[in-house]
Design a protein that fits this description.
Blueprint lengths: L1 H27 L6 E9 L17 E5 L5 E15 L5 E12 L2 E15 L9 E14 L7 E13 L2 E13 L1
Length: 178
């Protein structure tokens, strides 16, 4: 009987010895924090209000939509830099600090937005101009239910420009840790 007890006891001793190290590793990489992903559609409001913020090159506003298309909030960006690289394809790079204002709180993030203009995108038969947008950024914090949030934002889509209109098909995914 002693032969069977010793290996079982050794397993428990090993688990007890390694548990603090495993827990520390999970905490170090954020593995014990609750995680959530929020996906929002984003496009300019029909009638934007001009907002000037000190230190911003521009302060564009956006409406935020859930996956069902319902308006769920607004966002304001403080554009801090804009540059264009014209090597093979013209790409405009914009960096901005965003405040996403939702009914349950605010999320603040620093984003980099890459935009490339393409005329006659294959899916678009009208010959209009399309802008391909890619977004990447870091969530810096928040308030309300987003207090203490960290994480990343990724996304993008297309913006189609026709005579007098813009059609936005752009979404941002907020990968959050609380």
């Amino acid at each position: 009987m002693k032969e069977n007890c010793l290996p079982r006891l050794a397993k428990y001793v090993l688990i007890a010895a390694l548990l603090p190290f495993s827990w520390a590793a999970l905490v170090a990489i954020g593995g014990t924090k609750p995680q959530a992903t929020l996906v929002l559609g984003i496009k300019p409001p029909p009638f934007p209000i001009v907002v000037e913020q000190p230190g911003c090159l521009a302060s564009p506003q956006f409406n935020l939509y859930n996956s069902a298309g319902a308006l769920v909030g607004q966002a304001v960006a403080c554009v801090t830099s804009v540059s264009t690289n014209s090597n093979r394809f013209a790409v405009r790079t914009t960096t901005a600090h965003f405040v996403f204002d939702l009914s349950t709180g605010q999320i603040e993030a620093d984003l980099t937005i890459w935009e490339s203009t393409v005329t006659g995108f294959p899916a678009n038969k009208s010959g209009s101009t399309d802008i391909l947008q890619t977004v990447s950024g870091t969530i810096k914090g928040g308030n309300g239910v987003y207090a203490g949030v960290t994480g990343t934002i990724r996304g993008g889509g297309t913006i189609t420009l026709t005579a007098g209109t813009q059609v936005w098909n752009v979404s941002y995914a907020f990968d959050m840790k609380f």
